[in-house]
Write a structure and sequence with these properties.
Structural class: alpha+beta
Distance between the termini: 35 Å
Number of strands: 25
Shape: globular
Number of helices: 11
CATH topology of one domain: Anthranilate synthase
Radius of gyration: 23 Å
CATH superfamily of one domain: Anthranilate synthase
Helix content: 25-40%
Amino acid sequence: MGATTENLATTPSREVFLKLSEEEKASGSKVPAVPIFLRFPQGLLDPPTVFQRIREGKDSFLLESVKGSDRIGRYSIIGTRPFRVFSSKGSKIRIREGIYERKIDGNPFIELKRLMEETPVVRTPGAPPFTGGAVGLISYDAVHFFEKLPRTAVDDLAIPDLHFLFVDTCILFDHVEKEVILVHIPLLRHSPSETSARIRAYEEGVERLKGLYRKIMDGEALPSLKRQRSSRSFPVLPNMAKENYMEMVRRAKAYIKAGDIFQTNLSQRLTAEIGDLDSFHLYRILREINPSPFAAYLDFQEFQIVSSSPERLMLLKDGVVETRPIAGTRPRGKDPAGDQAMSAELITNEKERAEHIMLIDLERNDIGRVCDYGTVRVDELMVLEDYSHVIHIVSNVRGNLHAGKDLFDLIRATFPGGTITGVPKVRCMEIIDELEPVQRGPYTGSIGWLGFNGDMDLNIIIRTFVIKAGKAHVQVGAGIVADSDPEREYFETLHKANALLQTLETV
């Protein structure tokens, strides 16, 4: 017997929906979009199970808070069947809607903003932060639209600079309230001013949510994971020898000594041939090995992203901006006593503390460019967070977004994150382009969502597989300062790759 929806209520009621859409129409919005919600207890459901039950081919996503709190990991978001796919490389932009695709030239951020503004969404009391919008990624190299930087590194992955799925229907897990929230925003593209059209859109939206509920509840269970050493072997090859990485560090230290920069981040890439390995299976194992607050699985047509990022680049919610920089790393100990010793050494290490404070100042300056004067403050300073294989120093910086600024202004002011570029940021990015042999692609860019309601949440793409053409790529970096030891920094990059390499050994 299939799941029944008889006792489930959607909100708002039809009368309230019509009232809210009338108010939006009067305010001059192009398409009065009022979200409809259906809530029910989470029970035994989890995000990977629901994702597997509702996904329909490619162009699906799971943004999951596997580890977190009510502050940094409250919600997971799932979606499929986008009504629009936006993709760009350089100034070449592709926009696909159903079977139709158009290609244009221009600044992709300007075009993305224009498309987002077509669908303003009413903010309703008690609504979750994301009620529809664009979900996807911004590759590191998209920074060329904000800063004039050299392009000498090789673009060997050929991943889009921006790739976003526009969704009007999504599923959220509220991990604090232990409930599932189904969301749909009726997009009234034809005759939005007619009451009959709005009533029809509301009723169709309610039926769509009930159908989605039945699909979730009637779906099959995921096969259990077996955490054991894989019978398959996936040799991992670095894109540079140890000595080459150490030479990069020495050259960066020379720039520091010369006064060009104070700190930078240098990375290497590891690649494994994985053939037809199921990327979602890889994600399921990674989330168990390395649970993180900003994990993600993006299943696009030509590539997939499997991420267990611990770091938020930027949150914008109701006009309040938050960034959560990570700087300072040690490997986990072999036991609790070892963890305690590593934590004590990390938090008292003068090099790590100085580097962290320097990066906090950079983040304060970045968000200060778009926040009200006097509102930028550090509300969490140098706390320790434990992950499966490493311990990090983390802080939290927040401020109030200036009136007249929006999420795109915030991206321009802060992207990419200072913790994975350095201080000063622009000069560090020039040096990264000079020293690293390949373009970073998604690595140290951002995954997340841009809401039709004007809010946003983006991570920093670290601890991540980029999968394309049968290969899984992992890029890992280390922060370089004046007294960095090149060999130690090399091994720090490998420590950061441990969870991902262990995942490959387990699939």
